[in-house]
Fold this protein.
Amino acid sequence: MKKLLVGAVAAIVAATAGAARPSAEVGKPGVNPVPCPQQEWQRGDAAFDALPGAKAFSGQYDGGLYRVEIPVNWNGDLVLFAHGFVPNAGPNGSMLRVGVHRFREHVVKEGFAWAASSYRCNGYVPGQGLLDTVALVDLFKQANGGRAATRVYLTGESMGGHVTLLGMQEFPTMFAGGLAMCPAGPELFDYFAAMSAAAEVVTGVQFHADTVPQDVATMTAALGKPPDFTEKGRQLASIEIQMSGGPRPFAMEGLAGRFIANMSTSQAALVGSTTPTNRAIDTAHLSYAIGDGLGLTADTLNAKARRKTGDPQMRSADGPYEEVVPFDGKIQRPLMTMHGTGDLYVPIFLERSLKRAVAAAGNDTLLTQRVYRIGAHCQFSQPEMAKAFDDLVAWVKTGTKPQGDDVDGDLSNAGLTFTTPLRPNDPGGRTVVTSSKQ
């Protein structure tokens, strides 16, 4: 295994990061990231063992860690992998770590090189994640003896999916294609804040800036926890499912780990937080929905729910941070997305928002979306990811758009086409319904 000189790498990354930032000329590619959290960062160990028939390169750059793996039978192409959210709090919150590509074995077997970075900070940092992922292009070239890749593919999951969508939009000709797995996006935080406001209506408890932990505890007692919901808990559970995409396979299973978290993630936006993300959050445009027979109507919800209007200085194409602005759909290269029906952490409704943006920009032919019947966040099988990637590569090379799913349609029996294999307890083709007993 080889390691690169830190000084040389730092110079490369500094030059790349500088080039990636926006110029004064409107329309130039680039991204200005929300600043990293203000704390000291420690670096973990980037070293890793290469797969048989490949060479591993690892080291540090000015801000983080990187890994590169190049097969001996390299086909000339590079796959970048953007990792998901890593908390910046807790015992290891300041430790930077770099992993391996999500379907590394398949990528290497097919002759692709791959690269990944830690980013220079933890937290929800898709803008900084994109810059540090873009910097991998030159880090790879350095590791590869000065030889650049012919094509570069951008992949990522969860927050890394946000990185992927942002990259395909802000660097529209840099990547041959993108694969965004369970991708998050700015409107995820609209949903979280809306669930906080719904919880206020359901429980009769309001969040206050100086009592948030106590407020969450009081609400939790009133709601219960899955599967032991109170009457009020059944109301909020229905709201969370209806607002996240509607009845669909494994939605209740996915809600089990997110029921309380979904309503206690972005409540700060309702009580005056001034972070860029919270300033950009907007719930004024959302229309609440709830199942029948639960003792609460959508009309009541929409009339009583506290609303948060996005700050136009942030939630605008002219704002300082692209990552907090809803996607504009202005992509120029093939983009494929993967989303699970039971993902209640990063729900599938985000695919609908993405589709609308891409259609409004006139780029429908460049987007394929696929749905999978799984009950948790990002839990795709290796065959599912490998097929999606292979189909994306074929699309790039032949120009023939692969099959996808209609994410705007009824999702109550969605995901049968691409799920491999069907998971245990799959409804087996039966339409999923909701009732007052859920």
User: Anything to note?
Assistant: Residues 187-203 form the longest helix (17 residues). The chain has two domains: 2-187+326-398, 189-304. The chain has 14 helices and 13 strands.
